[in-house]
Design goal:
Blueprint: E1 6-11, E2 14-19, E3 24-26, E4 31-34, H1 41-46, H2 56-71, E5 75-79, H3 88-91, H4 94-105, E6 108-112, E7 131-133, E8 136-138, E9 141-143, E10 155-157, E11 162-168, E12 171-176, E13 178-180, E14 184-186, E15 197-198, H5 202-208, E16 213-218, E17 221-226
Parallel strand pairs: 4-5, 5-6, 6-7, 9-10, 10-14, 11-15
Antiparallel strand pairs: 1-2, 2-3, 3-4, 8-9, 11-12, 13-14, 13-16, 16-17
Length: about 230
């Protein structure tokens, strides 16, 4: 049994599994999808005088390794902003680089560029393995970093780090979530050091259009919440 909470999710004519930690698994392709890893975000801030614990990359890689060990995917797709900046790959500590190279060598690994790490000429061609693309179409699903309001095909993306904020038993609770419409599915950020936008933020609503839902995987089902347009 996979030691993660996940829930079935039908999207674009495909059967997927939404994991509670923000990853998405595609059983028919044995593919794992994650968004917004933001490796070396802490070191980026440190260079600008804001000191943060320098363990975010190792923590993210530990979480990712646990999912890979549990699911044994043949393909891994990273939906952009995998590094916090174009030089993030160079700053990975030796232990993190070794872990990442082990992961990229064990599956068909594809990095999709994002706004933080974009550019084939920005020193990101070798990201400790894998291949780099701007976007892809896989079995009818568009994979890109940021959702396009003009896209009519089923689309998987990241970028916004969506979170749902609720009032539960007198307490304010925030949870990472997926945002879905019939043709849009935004993944939450998988990185250990990432913030997030409320699901009803105007930029998310603009990208996905009306009628969106926030989805939170719990055990074997999805909790669904309407997103205010």
């Amino acid at each position: 049994m996979v030691p993660f909470s996940f829930a079935p999710l039908a999207f674009g004519g495909h059967s997927l599994l939404a994991l509670r930690n923000g990853a998405l698994f595609w059983p028919a392709r044995q593919a794992l999808l994650v968004a917004d890893l933001h490796f070396e975000k802490a070191s980026w801030f440190a260079k600008r005088g804001q000191m943060l614990p320098p363990y975010d990359s190792l923590a993210t890689l530990a979480d990712l390794s646990a999912v890979v060990d549990a699911l044994s995917p043949r393909e891994i797709w990273c939906l952009g902003d995998s590094f916090h900046d174009p030089k993030g790959c160079e700053r990975l500590p030796a232990a993190a680089q070794a872990t990442l190279r082990s992961l990229t060598s064990a599956a068909r690994w594809t990095w999709i560029t994002g706004n933080h790490d974009a550019g084939h000429d920005a020193g990101l061609v070798d990201r400790c393995g894998g291949v780099v693309v701007d976007e892809a179409v896989v079995d009818g699903l568009v994979l890109r970093h940021e959702a396009s309001a003009r896209e009519t095909r089923p689309e998987l993306s990241g970028h916004f780090h969506p979170k749902l904020r609720l009032r539960v038993r007198g307490r304010n609770v925030s949870r990472i979530c997926f945002v879905a419409t019939p043709t849009k599915l935004i993944l939450p950020a998988f990185g250990a050091l990432t913030g997030g936008l409320d699901v009803d933020h105007p930029e998310i609503v603009r990208a996905v259009g009306p009628g969106a839902e926030a989805l939170i995987p719990v055990e074997d089902k999805l909790l669904r919440f309407k997103v205010a347009a």
